[in-house]
Amino acid sequence: MITKKQVPSYSEGLEELQNNLGKMLPAEALWVFDKDANGLKARHQSILKLNIGDKAPEFYLSNAVGETVTLKSLLKQGRVVLTFYRGSWCPYCNLQLNQYQQILEEINSLGANLVAISPQTPDESLNIKEKNELQFEVLSDNVNIVARQFTTVFKNGEGPIETMKSLGIDFKSHYADNSLEIPVPAVFIIEQDGIISFATAIDGDYRNRVEPSEIINALS
């Protein structure tokens, strides 16, 4: 079990990540991504579709190896920490999931299991799982059927998509459909009776994520 001092700080990790991206990416690309993030923050003011006290809907999703996972089966094992992310191409998602992996033992010790959901294909779920050595379920929510019940789903802009393409990242190849839709990142804690006890999305700016310490505090 990790101690309080060992709980990673997303804000500190974000600062380091942005410094690194500032050195790696062209100024034009950084401008496009920054404009996109700020625009999303202004546009999405009311993000959550479910809140504390609501009943979480059942779901049936494929994991990284093609097995079907249901919310009912997860809740039989304990509480569920559910996080919605954008994709394996997103550096902020990788940072977030990597940090959540670091507190996984603490999450488990508090009677919960961690589950991450994105609209990516199972192959891409496996990719992010292997890249970050994730030891929790990473599920594929094709066309965001589950995501849109919990959080806001929106169409990714052509500007960011084309800029990613110029950097060698094929956004469209990560998904099985052509909707270009991705979820606003959000985290939920679902009790074993199916009732949501924690529901948070920082804002529409995808760079901002729920701190690992918030999850541990909520579970405690």
From TrEMBL:
<feature type="domain" description="Thioredoxin">
    <location>
        <begin position="50"/>
        <end position="220"/>
    </location>
</feature>
<dbReference type="GO" id="GO:0008379">
    <property type="term" value="F:thioredoxin peroxidase activity"/>
</dbReference>
<keyword id="KW-0560">Oxidoreductase</keyword>
<dbReference type="GO" id="GO:0005737">
    <property type="term" value="C:cytoplasm"/>
</dbReference>
<protein>
    <recommendedName>
        <fullName>thioredoxin-dependent peroxiredoxin</fullName>
        <ecNumber>1.11.1.24</ecNumber>
    </recommendedName>
</protein>
<comment type="function">
    <text>Thiol-specific peroxidase that catalyzes the reduction of hydrogen peroxide and organic hydroperoxides to water and alcohols, respectively. Plays a role in cell protection against oxidative stress by detoxifying peroxides and as sensor of hydrogen peroxide-mediated signaling events.</text>
</comment>
<dbReference type="InterPro" id="IPR000866">
    <property type="entry name" value="AhpC/TSA"/>
</dbReference>
<keyword id="KW-0676">Redox-active center</keyword>
<dbReference type="InterPro" id="IPR013766">
    <property type="entry name" value="Thioredoxin_domain"/>
</dbReference>
<dbReference type="InterPro" id="IPR036249">
    <property type="entry name" value="Thioredoxin-like_sf"/>
</dbReference>
<keyword id="KW-0049">Antioxidant</keyword>
<dbReference type="GO" id="GO:0045454">
    <property type="term" value="P:cell redox homeostasis"/>
</dbReference>
<keyword id="KW-1015">Disulfide bond</keyword>
<dbReference type="Pfam" id="PF00578">
    <property type="entry name" value="AhpC-TSA"/>
</dbReference>
<keyword id="KW-0575">Peroxidase</keyword>
<dbReference type="InterPro" id="IPR050924">
    <property type="entry name" value="Peroxiredoxin_BCP/PrxQ"/>
</dbReference>
<comment type="similarity">
    <text>Belongs to the peroxiredoxin family. BCP/PrxQ subfamily.</text>
</comment>
<dbReference type="GO" id="GO:0034599">
    <property type="term" value="P:cellular response to oxidative stress"/>
</dbReference>
